[in-house]
Amino acid sequence: MTTIESGTLTGQNLHLSFGTNHVLRGIDLHVEQGTTASVIGPSGSGKSTLLRVLNRLIEPDEGDILLDGRSVLKDNPDELRRRIGMVFQQFNLFPHKTVLENVSLALRKLRRMSAGEAREKALAQLDLVGLRHKADVRPGNLSGGQQQRVAIARALAMDPEVMFFDEATSALDPELVKGVLALMADLATAGMTMVVVTHEMGFSRNVSDTVTFMDGGVVVESGPPAAIFDDAQTPRLRSFLSDVL
Amino acid sequence: MDALEQLGKTFFDWEAMAAVLPDLLTVGLPNTLMLALASGIIGTVVGMVLAIMGISRNRVLRWIARIYTDIFRGLPAVVIILLIGLGLGPILRQITGSTSPYPLGILALSLIASAYIGEIFRSGIQSVEKGQLEASRALGFSYSSSMQLVVVPQGVRRVLPALVNQFISLIKESSLIYFIGLVASERELFRVGNDAASNTGNLSPLIAAGVLYLCLTIPLTHLVNFIDNRLRVGKKQKPEPDELAARIGEGAKA
């Protein structure tokens, strides 16, 4: 894998409302290049929305987003998203395309690679997630775990500077969770900058460099895993942890 | 002549049928096919534009699509055909010198077809999960590329059966073109059959025309069923190797 020289991501005072529903109320998040930040918190706390605001799938009402210290809010959002890979809870693979086409589509259409080049790169990427032999299959014929690994390969094929994981294992059968988490842990070890929204507390504690606990659209606590999991300062975090652990 | 014999004579006079068959095959069938095909293609293209407008974030585009659809889906086909054919006919003649009723007939049929097809496409496109657009946007595709590469192909696939149904009704509705007046060489299936029926005072030519309509529509009906089934069940897959192994294993246990 190529080493990536950039990827420090910062969200500053991010606000977002849907009508009267104030989903994000001034979020600050800083992810140093090459580190993994996990975001935990109860359902509806705004974690997934935060990811979508950080890559501008949803534009924030207020606040700033910096990539390598430079604001990206004025950039073309499509170009910003080519630098940030995203993996979804429901995989969202393209069911009308083969596994290989899923991975190579953006390479061909956005990176303007030739069909041959894109195929080579996509196959190499599929190899990394152990699914090269499924290249010509439709996603519908794969297990959930395999689909999610293809989705990860699809995102990685664009050589992103940052990877977002939005509850990437929540829709998987328990026995399939491990393989996907292991792949994510490998990525983290390889130096990928990652923002991981997760309910997997073990992953959050063992793999991430920082943990951010969100509730009600605000960051309640943030720090290294040990501080969050062993030394919670707020009653809200303590009660959340006692519910999930 | 008893009643049964008379019925047989009225509907199944083989000689009358044989007499009209050459005209049906050389005049009626090509014209019907031409009308249905041309308006089917135009209707599909315009229908797709209407569908995209109908789901646009631009309110004006949505309204235009809505009003267009409401009008041309809401009026009887024959009213549209007459208004377009008789209303625009003289103007077209002035401009082009052409007296052929076909351009206006095709226009009228296309207006009707596109309104229905637009609704079919729109419902298909809107049935595609939001996550598909989101995943495509997250990869860095623009809205229009995402629609073109990811969302629309899936939406269209889902409504192929409804689309083929629309082609079937187009073949049938093309018979209404006779309302705007056709010279002998312009007659389509229905008109050829009907003329022969009036001339002979016998309905058998019309039956013959009907049979030819069925020859066009019944295969399409079965195509609908085939597509529908394929979409629901999917192509037959070769079982996975480990599935096979599991079944062989079961055999060993027994």
From TrEMBL, chain A:
Annotated membrane topology: Peripheral membrane protein
A single GO cellular-component term on record: plasma membrane
Annotated keywords: Amino-acid transport, ATP-binding, Cell membrane, Membrane, Nucleotide-binding, Transport
Chief place where the protein resides: membrane
UniProt KW Nuclease keyword: no
UniProt keyword Disulfide bond present: no
Domain ABC transporter: 9-241
GO molecular function list: ABC-type amino acid transporter activity; ATP binding; ATP hydrolysis activity
Localisation per UniProt entry: Cell membrane
Family to which the UniProt record says this protein belongs: Belongs to the ABC transporter superfamily.
Name by which UniProt lists this protein: Amino acid ABC transporter ATP-binding protein
TrEMBL record, chain B:
Protein name (Swiss-Prot/TrEMBL): Amino acid ABC transporter permease
Keyword Cell membrane set for record: yes
Domain of life of the native organism: Bacteria
Residues that span the membrane, as ranges: 33-53, 74-92, 104-121, 167-185, 205-227
UniProt GO BP: amino acid transport
Domain ABC transmembrane type-1: 29-224
Subcellular localization(s) per the UniProt record: Cell membrane
InterPro entries recorded: AA_ABC_transptr_permease_3TM, ArtM/GltK/GlnP/TcyL/YhdX-like, MetI-like, MetI-like_sf
Gene Ontology CC: ATP-binding cassette (ABC) transporter complex
Protein topology in the membrane: Multi-pass membrane protein
Main location: membrane
Protein species of origin: Arthrobacter cheniae
One example GO MF annotation: transmembrane transporter activity
PROSITE patterns (alphabetical): ABC_TM1
UniProt entry tagged with the keyword Repeat: no
CDD domains documented for this protein: TM_PBP2 (cd06261)
Family per record: Belongs to the binding-protein-dependent transport system permease family. HisMQ subfamily.
Annotated keywords: Amino-acid transport, Cell membrane, Membrane, Transmembrane, Transmembrane helix, Transport
